[in-house]
Every structure is written in C-alpha cells, then in structure tokens.
Design brief:
By secondary structure, the protein is mainly alpha-helical. It is built from seven helices and two strands; from the N terminus they run ββααααααα. The protein has helices spanning 23-54, 60-87, 92-121, 123-126, 129-136, 146-154, 156-163; strands at residues 13-16, 19-22. A two-stranded antiparallel ribbon has the order 1-2. A hairpin with a 2-residue loop joins β1 (13-16) and β2. The radius of gyration is 24 Å and the shape is extended.
C-alpha cells in the first residue's frame, strides 16, 4: 500500500548537523516537511476566507471560535473512527478507504446543507461585499437586504456598537 518502502532507498547512514540517521529517515523527514509546507499554503488562505466571510454574520472572534470548534470535532471524530477500525483489526487499506469515504460523505452533507441554505434563506446575499460595507458605513435599514436586517436586530451588542 505504501508508495515508498524502506527497501527502495539505499541503506546509507547520514552524519549531518550532528544527527546520525539512516537515509530513509531523512527522506521521510523531507517528505513530511514538504507536505507540511504545502498544507500551510492551503490552510492559511482558507482560514482567511472563512474569517472574512464569517465576520459578517458573526464577529471575527466568534467566526474563528466556530471554525476551531468544527475542526477539533472533526479531528476527534476521525480519530475515534480510526481507533475503532484498528481495534477491530481492520486491514490498513480498509481503514484508509473508510476514512476517505467518511470525509467525502461529511463534505457532501455540508455541500447539500449549503445549497439548501442558499435556496431557502438566500444566505449568499448576506456575504456580499455590498451588505458588509453597508453595515460598516451605516446604510439605513431600508437599503439593506432583509437577511441583513435580521442579523442586525439579532444581537443588541452589535447594534449598539454600530450605532455608538
């Protein structure tokens, strides 16, 4: 199942920077560093987008808190599923495919809920730049979308911040 096994890389010991390790371990470290760097290029812009869009219906702090909560719950669910499958002595191929299907199913459910929200509540109107700037610059309630008026009246604290 692995793409690269220990037997593919020559059995050579490296002595660099005071570290004494086999070449296959150094190769694994290199791959982990590359994967970590590439995931940073994905995660950082995604978090910025979530915070940018999330501060319209919520404050920026609440948006970050919801994002972190959902991320942690997802990690715990995936680890629980992994622990259950390893406890049942499932083959590693089944574990990998099962976790992949679990993530895909979760994403399909999120996409389905998003389509429902767009269709039912016009949730994309709340995320438009015009509505965001209208709430910052004090546009009268008549000029805002109905969803934005609902969000403005939902939180007295936010209304007092806007008005004062």
């Amino acid at each position: 199942m692995a793409f690269c096994t220990k037997g593919i890389i020559p059995d050579v010991m490296l002595d660099a920077l005071g570290l004494h390790m086999p070449l296959y371990v150094a190769t694994a470290y290199l791959f982990l560093a590359v994967v970590g760097g590439m995931s940073g290029y994905f995660v950082v812009p995604m978090n910025a987008l979530l915070q940018h869009r999330g501060h319209v219906p919520l404050s920026a702090g609440h948006s970050i808190a919801v994002q972190n909560f959902n991320g942690n719950v997802s990690v715990l669910l995936t680890l629980t599923l992994y622990a259950l499958l390893t406890k049942l002595n499932a083959p590693i191929g089944i574990v990998i495919v099962g976790l992949g299907l679990f993530v895909c199913t979760g994403m399909l459910l999120v996409m389905r809920q998003h389509r429902y929200n767009v269709r039912t509540f016009n949730s994309l109107a709340m995320l438009s730049e015009d509505n965001h700037h209208a709430s910052i610059h004090g546009v009268p309630a008549q000029a805002r979308s109905p969803l934005m008026n609902k969000a403005a009246t939902a939180s007295p604290r936010r209304a007092s911040i806007r008005n004062g």
